[in-house]
Design goal:
two-stranded antiparallel ribbon, 10 helices, 49% helix, extended
Length: 189
């Protein structure tokens, strides 16, 4: 398990779910169009299985996030990658729209960045950890005793995480979701 930590207190740990890379000797050859079609037909089942396995990315890949301040572990949770649709759903939920009378259509006016960021973290948190931390009624009750208006999991995230911690968690979510992959390496593999 690789531990990626920094001075600021957010520790990201890779889970064992990732496969080890295997180095192979690859011979490059030029195939005729017919030979290429035959190769594709022979490997079609492998491609299908590869597509099915790739579609399970949100279930198979997780990272552990630890919130550490002054050397003390406060809490930890696991995140998973998000799909484009999940990112878009979070953005739409926290964007205010206005109707342009001249064009006759609604247009995005402004996105509530803080709520949007919290929603991304909430959405990427694995269900089990979401229930224990963000949706825990005992946590809501305790935080409401100290601070007003804890009404949902997003409020818990906003209340408990520092701005810099949220930024680093969002970076980890983006990376896990494939936004920081080297495109050339992804295409080649």
């Amino acid at each position: 398990m690789a531990n990626l930590s920094n001075k600021t207190g957010v520790s990201v740990k890779k889970d064992i779910h990732e496969e080890a890379e295997v180095q192979e000797n690859i011979e490059e050859r030029d195939f005729t169009e017919e030979e290429t079609k035959n190769q594709l037909r022979l490997n079609e089942e492998d491609f299908i299985q590869g597509l099915i396995a790739a579609a399970n990315f949100s279930e198979d890949e997780t990272q552990r996030i630890e919130i550490i301040r002054e050397g003390k572990l406060y809490f930890a949770f696991h995140i998973r990658p998000l799909s484009s649709e999940e990112y878009d759903k979070c953005r739409k939920k926290h964007t205010k729209y206005v109707r342009n009378k001249k064009l006759g259509m609604k247009m995005a006016d402004e996105t509530e960045r803080v709520k949007y960021q919290s929603h991304i973290i909430y959405q990427a948190t694995v269900e089990e950890d979401r229930e224990k931390l963000w949706d825990n009624k005992q946590v809501w009750k305790a935080l409401n005793a100290k601070k007003d208006r804890i009404m949902n999991g997003l409020d818990v995230i906003e209340c408990t995480l520092k701005a810099g911690e949220k930024d680093r968690i969002l970076e980890a979510i983006d990376k896990l979701s494939g936004y920081e992959d080297d495109l050339e390496e992804t295409v080649k593999n």
